[in-house]
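Protocol step 4 of 6: record predicted structures for both targets in the notebook before any analysis. Target 1:
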Amino acid sequence: MDNKTISRDGTLLAHHRTGQGPVVVLVSGAMSTGATLAPLAAALSDRFAAVVYDRRGRGGSGDTAPYAVEREVEDLAALIEAVGGEAALYGISSGGALALRAAASGLPVRQVAVYEPPFAVYEGGAEERAAYTRDLTAALAEDRRGDAVELFLRLTGLAPEVIANARQAPMWAGMESIAPTLAYDDAVMGDGLVPRDLLASIRVPVLAVAGGASAGWMRVAAQQVAQLAPRGTYRTLEGQSHAVEAEVLAPVLAEFFAAGAAS
């Protein structure tokens, strides 16, 4: 990351800006850094100034205890101020939930686009998320980082044999290094259910997108986000999964963000 910004509590935030035009800040999800969204930033850079950043506790950014979701909203406030004072937001997965929280908090945000925020709209979802929070908290308290990562991967639906193979892969050490931030994403998701009151309070346009090849409940969750936001719209990207391809998503986001920049 080329640039550094200081958040309100003194935490250093690493970020990188690509392209020129209206600013769009991209918010990554769990177990990700800003680099994860670099391909999407590049795909948007012909029309927008796309900003990726390392959320606190990851990559080149610092961290300051104690954690609170409000600190991550303050991080976005500091970042938006540093890159021009106003921005549109895009967030994927739990990063989408954070972007929605930031918009609801009153930050200078023009629009918000989210891809598959994983709200638990399926039967037994609330109980599953509560159990995950309990087990994750215990694993991190005992510094069992590998177990924490495994809990998260199980929550995403990965098969046990796939997780067992991942534990032997070179990437596992990197995943363990940012495992404590799983608690941050868990906090951002709240009780895991669709935040109806929060969504109803968002006054800017909201675009919720889901992949046609993703689990049905992810499309339902995105649809509910669009329905509950007063200025919400929904799009399905046929053939796409949770690992959405930047070149497929970028034109949809560009159309949405261009409309907001022109108004």
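Target 2:
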Amino acid sequence: MIRRTWFSRRLKSLALVAPLALFLIFFFIAPLLTMMTTAVSDPVASNALPTVTEALKDWDRASAPPADAQQSLADDIRNIGDDELFGDLVRRLNSAKSGFRTLMTKTRKAVVEDHELADLVAVDKRWADPAFWRAIQDAAGASLTDRNLLAAVDLTRDADGHIVNAPEGASANRTTLVRTLVMAAIVTACCIALGLPFAMVAASTTGWKRQLLLGAVLLPLWTSLLVRTAAWYIILQDNGLINLTLQTLGLTSGPVPLIFNRLGVVIAMTHVLLPFMVLPIFSVLIGIPKNLMPAAASLGAPPIQAFLRVLLPLSLRGVVSGALLVFMSALGYYITPALIGGAKDQMISSVIAYYATGAANWGMAGALGIVLLVSTILLYVVYLRLSSEERPA
């Protein structure tokens, strides 16, 4: 009887959490696993060129490929009837070796018109270059690869398989990632500079004044991110509210460039993420006894010294938690930099969107997503450690 009751309770508990578990599996875990699989899988070349790998098995990778390899490649290209698969193959090979786009198109036309054609060098002299054949062998020989993950941080493998830096100018993913980290750090610093004084004022008041201050912080969270960004897009214009006010007051003789640059992105992102800084600090400050600052003053400490030695150390837990929360959120921002920033102010999320929708390179999009995900998880672990309550000894 006891065992049946225990089983019934466990079944009811599982029934209560089942909807949430299914939601997480289908809308979070499954897409995440799909993204990771796409980043390390490379089945396009092996599916489109099934016989080339065997023909190149004993090739020394330094000289021109044997005739049977050219015959196999010609037959494989001739048998590709799906234009979408051929396009994916061309994009995959061209990303490994520049020039494949025109080479494959020219070769496909030649082998389709002449079914007996096997000498690819006669079609284009580039087929005598071992570099093109090495790219084909590497692409068709393995369905799993670390190529996208390395390319996400501007690394690649040389002819000997060693990991080296990608050629200069071939990619700017590392630069974009560093820019993302720098901009997230700048926004975090701005949120600390604005959020800490605001949280101190809100914590020092009571009644309707505190409610009004907290409402001013929470109000942006109730508004769509796109609406807030569009509002800043209008305000930061050369004839927007800020520039008109500055020129009316005589502070500037002309409009100050506030849009399509990094300053505008920082202003808009700081406004959007400020509540995530204020609320953690406020939750810590309201737990600090209010008589500590008067006690420090009674002992002869000036206000600044009392703040630095009493209030700031006690509120540092909330500051660090808010900083990590803002920093993690800023890493993945896309809409605000895309609308307000310039070409040199785009963050890593814009590059991911380009690979996913513009270049249709889901492998690179997934690899960059993994890099961003790992960075966020590491910061989230730190956030949990700092925000968790201390256990009693």
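Step 5 preliminary note on target 2. The chain has two domains: 44-142, 173-387. The two ends are 39 Å apart (CA to CA).
Proceed to step 6 after PI sign-off.
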